[in-house]
């Protein structure tokens, strides 16, 4: 068990390690060219039970939330993307949420703090993640709809400022859902209930100045997720999927892997922001679904 001081120092070291090895100047330059002067990051972390076994090949059989030596895939993804975007985040406040545990299942999200406050930068997000991951009870199933809806609410309350939602998850959204998890009789009859629910959330989110990046960690498979949610009913292409494991298993240096991941995770952001501006998405003043995050698990 870490003492508070040692615990904080470990997080600081992990963040500095990512900070020094990844400087994604290409992404930053592209964002500046389309006029993006500031952005706001939102983080969603998958705490479904499958994290216990989807690291069989890529993480030496350990849980993807394992807090042993060195950063786990969730910590690496948060650190790399957070570092790249930190130059555009004016207030350094990052709302962080978890989903898929025993308190939320596929129906809600919990905030990293009981009062709902954001984390003060990436180091605090990493610190709070480790505190939660040490005690959270994993469950499921996986649904991205609640975290997307929570992000829409944040964008609305900000006066429709531009945000980037980073979702880190270990498995595909299942197509079907048992009747015990459906919230209406119609949903329980749908064979593709879970997939449809996520797709509808993505369509709704395209009325907000919000980019959504899904980072796939673990063994996968992930092939379908690159196409399943590319629906023509969206006002703009607001979704990007990145296979973290594939990039990190490539034959290149660790610094090069970090750079490649940052570039792929954020490669659509410039064109998405340009579409938001040209279509005046912020002026739509869309209304978000009502969703109140739960407190973090105790």
SSE order and pairing:
Layout: H1 4-21, H2 25-33, E1 40-46, H3 73-85, E2 93-94, E3 96-99, E4 110-111, E5 119-120, H4 121-133, H5 145-157, E6 163-169, H6 185-189, H7 193-205, E7 210-216, E8 239-243, H8 244-248, H9 254-266, H10 269-278
Parallel strand pairs: 1-3, 1-6, 6-7, 7-8
Antiparallel strand pairs: 2-5, 3-4
Q: Going across the major beta sheet, what is the strand order? A: 4-3-1-6-7-8
- Main beta sheet: strand number and arrangement? 6 strands, mixed
Along the chain, the helix and strand elements come as HHEHEEEEHHEHHEEHHH
Number of helices: 10
Termini Cα gap: 17 Å
- Anisotropy-based shape: globular
Give the rounded overall mean pLDDT: 85
**Quaternary assembly:** single chain
Rg over alpha carbons? 18 Å
Secondary-structure-derived class: alpha/beta
Question: In percent terms, what proportion of residues is strand?
Answer: 5-15%
How many individual β-strands?
8
Helix content: 25-40%
Q: Which stretches of 5+ consecutive residues score pLDDT under 50?
A: 1-23, 178-189
Organism: Triticum turgidum subsp. durum (Durum wheat)
GO cellular component, one term: nucleus
GO molecular function: ubiquitin-protein transferase activity
Domain Copine C-terminal: 63-280
Provide structural commentary.
This is Copine C-terminal domain-containing protein. By secondary structure, this protein is of the alpha/beta class. 38% of the residues lie in helices and 12% in strands. It has 10 helices and 8 strands. It has helices at residues 4-21, 25-33, 73-85, 121-133, 145-157, 185-189, 193-205, 244-248, 254-266, 269-278; strands at residues 40-46, 93-94, 96-99, 110-111, 119-120, 163-169, 210-216, 239-243. The protein has a 6-stranded mixed β-sheet with strand order 4-3-1-6-7-8, sandwiched between helices. The longest helix has 18 residues, at 4-21.
């Amino acid at each position: 068990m870490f003492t508070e001081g040692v615990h904080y120092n470990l997080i600081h070291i992990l963040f500095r390690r990512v900070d020094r090895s990844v400087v994604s100047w290409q992404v930053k330059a592209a964002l500046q060219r389309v006029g993006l002067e500031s952005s706001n990051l939102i983080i969603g972390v998958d705490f479904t039970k499958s994290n216990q076994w989807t690291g069989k090949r890529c993480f030496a059989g350990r849980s993807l939330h394992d807090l042993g030596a060195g950063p786990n895939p969730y910590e690496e993804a948060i650190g790399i993307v957070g570092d790249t975007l930190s130059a555009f985040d004016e207030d350094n406040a990052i709302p962080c949420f978890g989903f898929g545990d025993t308190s939320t299942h596929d129906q809600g999200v919990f905030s990293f703090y009981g009062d709902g406050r954001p984390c003060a930068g990436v180091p605090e997000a990493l610190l709070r993640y480790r505190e939660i991951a040490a005690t959270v009870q994993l469950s499921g199933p996986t649904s991205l709809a609640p975290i997307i809806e929570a992000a829409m609410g944040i964008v609305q309350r900000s006066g429709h400022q531009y945000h980037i939602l980073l979702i880190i998850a270990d498995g595909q959204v299942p197509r079907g859902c048992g009747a015990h998890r459906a919230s209406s009789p119609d949903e329980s009859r749908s064979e593709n209930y879970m997939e449809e629910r996520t797709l509808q959330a993505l369509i709704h989110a395209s009325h907000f100045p919000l980019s959504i990046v899904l980072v796939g960690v673990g063994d996968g498979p992930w092939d379908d997720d690159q196409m399943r949610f590319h629906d023509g009913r969206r006002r703009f292409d607001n979704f990007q999927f990145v296979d973290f494991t594939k990039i990190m298993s490539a034959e290149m240096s660790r610094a090069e892997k970090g750079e490649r991941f940052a570039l792929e995770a954020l490669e659509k952001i410039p064109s998405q922001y340009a579409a938001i501006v040209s279509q005046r998405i912020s002026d739509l003043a869309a209304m978000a679904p009502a969703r109140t995050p739960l407190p973090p698990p105790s």
